[in-house]
Design goal:
Elements: H1 2-31, E1 47-50, H2 62-66, E2 83-88, H3 90-138, H4 148-171, H5 185-210, H6 217-244, E3 251-257, E4 263-268, H7 273-287, H8 297-308, H9 323-380, H10 391-412, H11 421-433, H12 438-446, E5 465-468, E6 481-485, E7 490-497
Antiparallel strand pairs: 1-2, 3-4, 3-7, 5-6, 6-7
Helix pairs in contact: 1-10, 3-5, 3-6, 4-6, 5-6, 9-10, 9-12, 10-11
């Protein structure tokens, strides 16, 4: 109870202090605002997207203020803001609304396809049973006795239908992973083949058996057995086309993220472009580190600062064209570029020094906190069971001792938008529950992880658009390039065919491994 009260008092004091410092920071920022911010560098049609409802641990614009402050600024100042710096134009908003409208059509198309497949599957399984039962219902008295042969055929039909049902459930009845822009060609062909096959069997059954009221019941049952056998062979064909054909790697795909250049390589078999894009996106959320636009703002602000320092004066009057001004600005930028590498070098060195320093502080703070909770557990075992703390209470008890170091480190590395207070507490309680070490707790924050590691509210990529010069239903070919676009970035995919490898054999006789020791007069041997 005392630990919980201390935690509440710590949070309340921290929030009061943060509000006071936030006001002071805003006044100072307004007072020292650069005139560069008034030149309307952003479009007039831009809007600002608010952050997700989860409480961020830090402000998103703290990274800008970080550049001009020393290592101890966090001891006296805490800046917290609730807005994000990511902007989109009205054209992007219109495109998003159009995508939402199109998603309704995609849902209708998906449910329509599932309905057609379900009706066709039901027809397939009921057809052999109907072939056997209809003669028994319509002209039972006229049928010839079948005996043991028909009973054996009944058992065969029952087990074959059971096997077909299990195989169909395993192959077709799966949770859909994505909405593809076009239909799956092989699956559509299989559905058409099954429909034509069952229709032809019904047509022959109606003309040769129902109209003539055939009395050979054994032949009718064997006709139903032949239908089930043919359906099993079609199921084998579906396994080959849908599953086995794509297993052998034939192409190597290089995937590059357009913003930061991070790339991965994947080997795929014979797939269509849309299915290859689906495989790439499934691996993207696992293999690529999470997209962090805050890491790109430093280079953009540095380039804007260099360009803002250039001024061009038109001494010939307003009538002169602007081509001379453009050439003058390019020449001046080239002259300044010769000295800008020094500034970049020192900026990166200073940033790496701050990261190493704050990482060391964070590691020490977390290790001390975990040592404290271990000591609390050893002491609490001797007390009454009613005073024992659960993992959530233990996490709340030790979190204030590491919160400041974690705040400063996440701000320095610009990861504050991905970690809320609640998510950190949940991760801390999870580590305490499973008796994990401080190093295991810090792994999530010291190294940026894949997109799946974070909450879905923190993802910048949820809806994708496939852009390709070729038809998305066509297969992969050597040299094809297609792009997967989302709101903030895109994935550029380049397809290369795996070359044909010619491997030859050369035999070496084991008896040929003979050596001679050559001695020289200068040696000591």
């Amino acid at each position: 109870m005392s630990a919980a009260m201390d935690t509440e008092s710590t949070y309340s004091g921290y929030s009061h202090y943060s509000g006071h410092s936030k006001k002071a920071h805003r006044q100072g920022r307004d007072r020292h605002k650069s005139p560069r911010s008034k030149d309307g560098s952003r479009s007039e049609k831009s809007v600002t997207i608010q952050t997700p409802p989860a409480e961020p641990l830090l402000g998103n614009d703290a990274s800008r203020a970080e550049e001009g402050q020393d290592d101890n600024w966090g001891e006296t100042t805490t800046a917290i803001t609730g807005t994000s710096e990511h902007s989109i134009s009205q054209e992007d908003i219109a495109r998003i609304s159009k995508d939402l409208e199109d998603s309704v059509g995609l849902d209708c198309k998906r449910y329509l396809g599932l309905t057609v497949a379900a009706v066709l599957g039901l027809l397939v399984f009921l057809t052999p049973i109907a072939f056997i039962l209809l003669p028994q219902i319509l002209w039972r008295d006229d049928l010839e006795p079948c005996g043991t042969v028909c009973e054996g055929l009944f058992i065969s039909v029952a087990f074959k239908l059971l096997i077909l049902l299990i195989g169909t459930w395993a192959l077709f009845f799966r949770q859909p992973k994505a909405d593809l822009p076009r239909v799956f060609v092989f699956r559509a062909l299989l559905l058409v083949l099954i429909f034509l096959f069952v229709f032809s069997y019904w047509l022959f059954y109606g003309v040769r058996i129902l109209d003539s009221k055939d009395t050979n019941y054994q032949g009718i049952v064997q006709y139903a057995v032949s239908l089930v056998d043919a359906l099993l062979f079609i199921h084998y064909l579906a396994i080959v086309l849908l599953e086995l054909r794509q297993l052998q790697p034939m192409f190597t795909l290089k995937v590059v993220r357009s913003t930061d250049g991070e790339s991965r390589y994947y080997s795929l078999g014979h797939l269509s472009i849309q299915r290859a894009a689906l495989v790439i996106l499934e691996n993207y959320y696992r293999d690529f580190t999470v997209y962090n636009p805050a890491l790109l703002t430093a280079s953009k602000s540095r380039a804007a600062k260099h360009m803002a320092g250039l001024k061009v004066y038109n001494v010939d009057g307003p009538g002169n064209n602007a081509s001379g001004q453009s050439r003058a600005m390019i020449a001046a930028a080239a002259r300044r570029r010769d000295s800008s590498h020094n500034e970049l070098y020192y900026e990166e060195a200073d940033h790496e020094r701050r990261v190493r320093k704050r990482r060391a502080r964070l590691v020490v703070a977390v290790e001390e906190a975990f040592t404290h909770i271990k000591r609390l557990q050893a002491e609490e075992q001797q007390k009454a069971p009613g005073e024992m703390m659960d993992p959530r209470e233990a996490a709340q008890a030790i979190f204030p001792s590491m919160a400041r170091a974690l705040q400063k480190y996440l701000r320095t590395t610009r990861q504050q938008q991905y970690h809320s207070m609640e998510s950190i507490l949940q991760h801390l309680s999870f580590c305490i529950t499973n008796n994990m070490t401080p190093k295991a707790f810090l792994e999530r924050y010291l190294n940026p992880g894949p997109t799946l590691q974070y909450d879905r509210d923190r993802w910048f990529s949820k809806q994708w658009t496939l852009v390709s010069e070729e038809a998305v239903t066509s297969g992969l070919q050597d040299g094809i390039v297609f792009v997967l676009k989302c709101l903030d970035f895109s994935l550029v995919v380049n397809v290369k065919k795996i070359p044909f490898i010619k491997l030859s054999e050369e035999f070496i006789d084991p008896k040929s491994h003979k050596f001679v020791l050559r001695l020289q007069s200068e040696t000591s041997v």
